Amino acid sequence: MTETFTPGRPIWCAGCGDFAIQGIMEKALDSTGISRHKFMLLSGIGCSGTMQNNVQCYGYHALHGRVLPTAVGAKLSNPELTVIAAGGDGDGYAIGAGHLIHTFKSNPSIIYIVMNNSTYGLTKGQPSPTSPTGYRSNVEGDLDAIMLGLSISSTTFLARGFSGHPEQLEDLMVSALEHTESGKGLAFLEILSPCVTYYDTHREWRSRVLDVNNDDESYDPGDRAKVFQKMIEITGEGRIPIGLIYKGEYPSLESLILNSDYPPAALQDIKSPAIKEDYRKTMNSFLG
Ligand code: SF4
Fold this sequence. Notes:
This protein is of the alpha/beta class. About 35% of the residues lie in helices and about 15% in strands.
């Protein structure tokens, strides 16, 4: 008997930014014609980490901070899948920060959505890597993941949206899907998603965001050096840049490492005698 997964209802607080993000992600998937049976959503730990329970697709709840290597493994095993990794700023920028750097460096064709609320919502509001200095006695400086991505030469798509700007966010989500579906590498999409219960930044962020693509018609997302300079300028004025911030070119991880000697595991004929022999040899190697 075949059983079909039935998505659950979101368990977020009323008004949480994550509602809008899930809705827009599903709308973008449907508008780009991606079938749910070819889509996998993986999430990290945190409030946003429950998202894969709510969506009709393949889902996986990864270990804390480990959503990126798990998602990369899924993509390399089956490049025909559309893979989205999702999580929060605590999961992705603290315990998962090393994986973020290496994923920027290796450029796999997956989407990474970080729902940034600048706090640890699930554990009641402690300062996170993106919290401003002074928030709940935070003595540390805040991390800007777009600037981190700009500093790595192999990044190909860096964008930031805001849950309070749904139309722009849908455009960014569609662009991210087009980027990964055409095998161009990692689409990194940070989304400002206020935690209305423990750190309600909605009004503040609405007044501070600046849409770089519409504010200045000379803005060129393809010029890394000028984008870097512009980001420093905008953030120095206390604004938060949103939009398609950087788009470049670099070979994707799967185009560099998958070949006839290293074919994707999920697409191999598991009944072939050669595979059975490889499997037998591998298992025997553990026996010494
Ligand atoms: Fe959203 Fe904050 Fe509630 Fe978590 S605690 S569901 S981040 S509003």
